[in-house]
Amino acid sequence: MKILLSNSSKEPFYNQIYGQIKSMILSDELKDGEGLPSMRKLARDLGVSVITIKRAYDELEKESFIFSIVGKGSFVSENNIALIKEKKMQAVEEQLQAVVANSKEIGISLQELQEMLHIFYKE
Predict the structure, then answer these.
(1) Which residues have a Cβ under 8 Å from the Cβ of 85 and sit 6 or more positions away?
(2) What's the pLDDT tens digit per position in 68-119?
């Protein structure tokens, strides 16, 4: 598992780890049921404390991205990924509705809005 930590980021390490693992799950880079590295191994690989990894794993488990079995490890949740993606899709739709409403309010054309979206999507 490739996780990159930035010392210059204002975001704490546990949050960087959480975000990157979450992204790997949502992008299907980590498959349903796939095991995650042990907390000790990941902590050693990343050069952080086990407590930092535990906090990241706890957050992932709290949001049902992973589940843990005592003595066996942590695994990508199998049934919740589709539900999580659906919730994310709903959030995107709500944000787009707000963007469209604000754009119409100030006279931004559909073409201008598409160009802006295209620029932001490529960033």
Answers:
(1) 26
(2) 999 999 999 886 667 777 878 888 999 999 999 999 999 999 999 999 999 9
Nearest-angstrom CA–CA distance, 78 and 5: 27
- What is this structure's pTM? 0.69
Map tokens 């095991």 to a residue: 35
Angle between helices 39-46 and 50-62 (to 10 degrees): 120
Helix, coil or strand: residue 11: coil
Task: Say which amino acid occupies 118.
Answer: H
The distance of Cα 12 from the centroid of its chain, to the nearest Å, equals 15
Contact 81, 37 (CB under 8 A): no
Amino acid letter for position 6: S
